[in-house]
Design brief:
Radius of gyration: 25 Å
Shape: globular
Number of helices: 13
Structural class: mainly alpha
Helix content: over 70%
Oligomer: single chain
């Protein structure tokens, strides 16, 4: 008489040579695609670095510390653009991370009927399909007027604070940060929701079995288990915010000055490239390539830090 284990083994058929060949081909195909992605990435970096070489030789590290961008005298520096890129991106994440993670928790728990959750998920993901230029137009005609009124009240009431020290006149860091928060919201929500849903239900049941409340289960079990996925979502959103061009160019004011005030006009590297690349020539093209290379390196550093954070969390 066969044991259940022996019976199961008799059911499993050995793989044919064709199936083994198909698996091996698929593995090698995925390896080729992965190496192709790395090759394309290196190709882009090398091409940008080659085009930026004249500006690198001319300005060196001074390019990062110089605040002047003067094509007439061939004096270039991207300190205001680096500052504007980092501040507007982090301002956007400051808005989108709590809202996005909170929305992901709402959509992954059974608080709402399935039909309503399905509609909300569709609407959140639809935000990612709106072209950035539409966000820019919406920001100019809908977002800036009330923000300007709010900014004038904050300036008159709390103008002694550096972040409110400028009288808002329209475009500036504040509306650009808000629009980046809206544009990165679907990325954080969708990926965080997938990470929360992927947490094994046995963890939730074990927490309930030990007497934990629903909120204790969410904050002490579900969120820590999905932390790596949520961090990946935030870092991906940060990369999206740092590289956003059209909407930010239309809303940030494009001023090459550094100001601590959120209401002052500013600039980003992407906006600088969008505004000047079409009419640039000579050393200015090389300087713009140098700025693009800096943006590339900043994005790479952000992604490496994200991977290090995820690895460190997995070891705990």
């Amino acid at each position: 008489m066969n044991t259940p284990f022996q019976s199961d083994r008799s059911i499993v058929k050995p793989r044919s040579e064709f199936e083994k060949s198909l698996d091996t081909s698929f593995i090698w195909l995925t390896r080729v695609f992965a190496l192709a992605i790395v090759a394309v990435l290196l190709w882009i970096a090398i091409e940008v670095a080659i085009e930026a070489t004249p500006a690198i030789r001319e300005f060196g590290a001074r390019f990062l510390a110089e605040s002047t961008w003067n094509p007439v005298n061939n004096i270039y520096g991207v300190l205001p653009q680096v500052y504007g890129t980092l501040v507007s991106s982090f301002l956007g994440l400051l808005i989108s991370v709590p809202i996005g993670v909170g929305t992901a928790i709402l959509l992954s728990e059974n608080w709402l009927p399935l039909s309503i959750r399905t509609v909300l998920v569709f609407l959140v993901e639809l935000l990612a399909a709106i072209p950035s230029v539409v966000y820019g137009i919406w920001g100019i005609f809908v977002l800036i007027p009330p923000l300007t009124a709010l900014g004038r009240w904050l300036n008159s009431s709390f103008g002694w604070l550096p972040i409110f020290s400028t009288v808002p006149t329209g475009p500036g860091m504040f509306p650009a940060g808000i629009i980046l928060g809206i544009m990165t919201l679907p990325i954080i929500t969708a990926i965080s929701r997938d990470a929360l849903i992927s947490v094994p239900s046995s963890l939730r049941q074990a927490a309930f079995g030990l007497g934990a409340t629903r909120w204790e289960t969410i904050f002490k079990v579900i969120l820590p288990a999905a932390f790596s996925g949520i961090v990946s979502a935030v870092m991906l959103a940060l990369g999206r915010a740092m590289g956003e061009t059209m909407a930010v160019t239309m809303l940030i004011g494009n001023s090459n000055r550094i100001s601590p005030s959120l209401f002052a006009p500013a600039n980003t590297i992407s906006s600088l490239l969008a505004n000047q690349f079409a009419e640039a020539s000579g050393l200015q093209v090389s300087a713009l390539m140098y700025a693009a290379l800096i943006l590339f390196v900043l994005t790479l550093i952000v992604n490496v830090l994200a991977e290090l954070i995820v690895l460190r969390v997995k070891r705990l």
